[in-house]
Amino acid sequence: MWYADLRATGGPRVSLKTLDERVAKEKHAAIELAHLRGTDVRRSEGGGGGLTLGAAVQRALSGAWRGYRRKAELVTTLGGVVAEFGAGTQLARIDGPRLRAWVDRLLGEGLAPATVNRRLAVVSRLLHLGVEWGAMPQVPTLPRQREPQSRIRWYSPEEEQRVLAWCQKCDVELGMLVSFLADTGWRLSEAVGLTGERVRIAVADL
User: Fold this and answer.
1) Contact between 45 and 24 (Cβ < 8 Å)
2) What is the SS3 assignment for 199?
3) pLDDT band of 13, cuts 50, 70, 90
4) Angle 172-184/71-85 helices, nearest 10 degrees?
């Protein structure tokens, strides 16, 4: 069993447990992104200047990605990126070889090419923002993976609403569960394992 546990300065203690080591590391990094607003994420590891990954993520979340609908899923993905490269790493030092090594690890852990590509899409957008901010000269080549032609496509917003309406009509609890999964991006195992102590109604936080 793996545990992700954090007490932010002046804030509440947040913890979770999972059987998956990678999930624990990603969730822990996501918790840090959500709660450690007082840390100096601008400080670069190894000295030197330059925008750090942690500062870039916080800037993107408070700016370009502020209105992102599935924020919980986005923050979890970014948590995995921060867990891999480190919040204090200069954005400009996340180059092609480091990205390829990360992708190789994800594939080695059994993630599907489509899942890896979705994570790379988030990294690509963050790095493009870094170029716009003048933090790096250009975006490195990302090692996107070839996906099977028969892969499951994404629902359109209209299709999603029809599916949710059908589930709600068949069973109210099923409709609530499917809606929760669609809005948060959680895995089914994470949703059914959710306990009361991990829910904070006052701040709408899980």
Assistant:
1) no
2) coil
3) low
4) 40
